[in-house]
Amino acid sequence: MPVSDDVSKSASDPCSAAQPETAGWHAETKLVHAGTLRSPFGETAEALFLTQGFTYGSAAECEERFAGTGGFVYSRHSNPTVAMFEARMAALEGAEAARATASGMAAVTAALVGQVKAGDHIVAARALYGSASWVISDLLSRFGVTATLVDGRDLDQWRAAVRPETRVFYLESPSNPTLEVVDIAAVAEIAHAAGATLVVDNVFATALWQSPLTLGADCVVYSTTKHVDGQGRCMGGIVLGSEQFIQDNVHMLLRQTGPCLSPFNAWVMLKSLETFSLRVERQTATAARVADALAGHRNLVRLVYPGRADHPQADVVRKQMRAGSTLVALEIAGGKAGAFRFLDALKLIKISNNLGDAKSLVTHPATTTHERLTAEQRATLGIGDGLIRFSAGLEHADDLVGDLLQALERV
Fold first, then answer.
1. What's the burial of 160, exposed, middle or buried (CB within 10 Å: 0-12/13-18/19+)?
2. Buried-state track 258-279, b at ≥16 Cβ within 10 A, e below 16
3. Residue 146 forms beta bridges with which residues?
4. pTM of the model
């Protein structure tokens, strides 16, 4: 069962019900049923086990639990509701195991920190979320882990960056916020030839449209704050991979350091997963509609969407993605001033640094998610002062297109 090893197999555990076979199910079915653990009450909705600890029938049973024979001992380690969420996400991703975390950045940090020690080396695509870039370039360097950032689209740069001490490759695809797409299978091959692992942040594609593990990645991370919750309520993250990868690199780190997911947040996300495919399909279709409606507008310097034929890596998109993203990158004419006029003219779409929400959102990366980078660094990444990241929500596409077009006219 692809959940925490604290899940009990004993009849004394109220959540020991046998798991249904999920291998032959479609994604939509897994999103409703996978990983469900029912108590003796036979509840329809997954139970919320809002508890810190657990009790034992005897001192001997307590000893056995702590010896690792199965069963829950403390919600920092594992929890029945969190275990259900992990199992359902693992079934969706096609992973053997998963560990949930308190946030997406906790997942990213755990996936990286758990694999390296002083003297090791990481190679990462330079097009990264600002916090991920900080962990790789700033935090890990304090502990003797070096990093080389490369243009993720250039396979020769990945090869050239390899050192004898290289242990991990890391990338986002599509990237935040410019929607660059990296050839995951090709990078995985380079990583494995070097004796390294590949970790992929798959948030912008979602598990519905891209399967990094199938493409050769060793680990996939998500901020489940985004499309998984998808309604602006709860923070969360998850690390997925083989049972061996999780046990060797992630399990003990999370157990001992404590960035655990709240059972309440796990319960909210379990219920959200039931509508995940419906929401992401609708948001993707809307993002594609927006991209087509805005392409070529006189007040746009650039528009990037992975579902369009004019995407710079359209051939890679066709090879590894089943559909485009819920995000569109728009570069507004007039730099920061033009971008701010555009943002302030929007009437329906909200300004926020979040994404993957039921509400359509826009953000200005140069002054928010990537503000800590220098102007030169942002320019190298293609994050101009006029760049806007649009995240499609569940509103009617016509209303969103109308709002975006009227705001563009105000630039």
1. exposed
2. ebbbbbebbbbbbebbebbbeb
3. 121
4. 0.93
Determine phi and psi for 262, rounding to 5 degrees: -65, 135
Q: Percent helix, strand and coil across the chain, each rounded to 5?
A: 40, 15, 45
- Could you give the CA distance from residue 369 to residue 163 in angstroms, rounded to a whole number? 30
CB atoms within 10 A of CB 349: 21
Q: How confident is the model at residue 69 (pLDDT cuts 50, 70, 90)?
A: confident
Peptide bond before 177: cis, by omega within 30 degrees of 0? yes
- pLDDT tens digits for range 343-375: 999 999 999 999 999 999 999 999 999 998 889
Query: Any idea where the domains of the chain sit in the sequence?
Result: 27-273, 276-409
| Segment holding 289, helix H or strand E | helix 276-294
What angle do helix axes 80-93 and 263-273 make, rounded to 10 degrees? 40
Here the tokens at position 262 are 């709240």
Q: Quick: pLDDT tens for 249-302.
A: 999 999 999 999 999 999 999 999 999 999 999 999 999 999 999 999 999 999
| CATH 3.20.20.70 for domain 27-273 | no
Q: What angle do CA 391, 397, 399 make, to 5 degrees?
A: 100
Instruction: Judge whether 324 and 306 are in contact, CB under 8 Å.
Output: yes
Count CB neighbours of 52 within 10 A: 9
Residue 2 has pLDDT above 80, yes or no: no
- Token pair listed for 150: 């490369």
CB atoms within 10 A of CB 43: 11
C-alpha count within 13 angstroms, C-beta hemisphere, residue 379: 4
CATH homologous superfamily for 276-409? Aspartate Aminotransferase, domain 1 (3.90.1150.10)
